[in-house]
Amino acid sequence: MIRIVTRTRLAALEQGAERALERMRAVQASADSAYAGHLRTVYDLTADVEAAERAAEADRADAEIAREILERTEAQLADARATVIEQAARIDALSGDLDAMAGAVVLLHFGQLHSLHRTARAAELHAQSFGAAEGGWGPPSGRPASEVGWRIQSLSSFAVPEAGEPG
Q: How far is CA 3 from CA 6, 8, 9, 53, in A?
């Protein structure tokens, strides 16, 4: 079948084809713009994710450093507590020794140090075990210690005064 096309009809078809081509170009431009925007968004989101991952890794590293510092500090604190407990026990022991020695006496035999005792009574009993007379203890006489068989004196009388203290 042969169809005869008039100029008017041909012009109308050409205009329709031109409009369709322009519409296709406009849709293509819009699609290209949307695609470019999508690519920018994907690029920006990818960059944001990578930055967040780097920040998270840095935060994890900082947290690990803080954890190590905390563990070292806790260990040092435990050591310090143990030292404090040990020092407190030593102070208690030394305080007990000091309290015990506050009334300590020395037993002299002809002026020479013979023994150290917590009480005068303990020193007397000890001297009696070496033959000293029972009940013969009195205040130190004016005689030199080297001339007296047995003498009890307080330990504090042998203390050396510190600088500036009366002797």
A: 10, 14, 12, 69
